[in-house]
Amino acid sequence: MSRSDEVNKMTENVYKGILDQFNPSLKNFVTMGKHYEKALTGVTVAAKGYFDGLVKLGELASDSQGSKELGDTLFQMAEVHRQIQVQLEDVLKLFHSELLSQLEQKLELDIKYLTATLKKYQSERKSKSESIVLVC
């Protein structure tokens, strides 16, 4: 095998390695990120139910003379919980828009680019090989 053939084979293996191994792994990573996002969205829904329960208990406790302090404490807990939820929802939006969506778009573009570049490389290589054979 000539040095040129070896270099050609190594070049094609790099392209194929990226297309067959790295990009599918990255695609799997994006899919796992979407599952994670979905799970966090479910947690957010459950947390809203928890928040509503805290507020309701706070209202009930505040109506009673003996439980006024407990009601105030529950309202404070509910407010802290609400702030945490708002932060979580903001982070979740950023996670989706700035990480998952961007990564997915770049991955698709990368796959198209690498596929086209590999085909172009193979076509040019074939063309050069044929022209060398014709000259000889």
TrEMBL record:
GO-annotated cellular components = cytosol; nucleoplasm
Q: Which InterPro entries match?
A: AH/BAR_dom_sf, I-BAR_dom, IRSp53/IRTKS/Pinkbar
Q: Write down the Pfam families for this protein, in alphabetical order.
A: IMD (PF08397)
IMD domain sequence ranges: 1-136
What GO terms describe the biological role, i.e. biological process, of this protein? Answer: actin crosslink formation; actin filament bundle assembly; plasma membrane organization; positive regulation of actin filament polymerization
Question: Which PANTHER family does the annotation name?
Answer: BRAIN-SPECIFIC ANGIOGENESIS INHIBITOR 1-ASSOCIATED PROTEIN 2
What name does the UniProt record give this protein? IMD domain-containing protein
Designated gene of the protein: zgc:158689
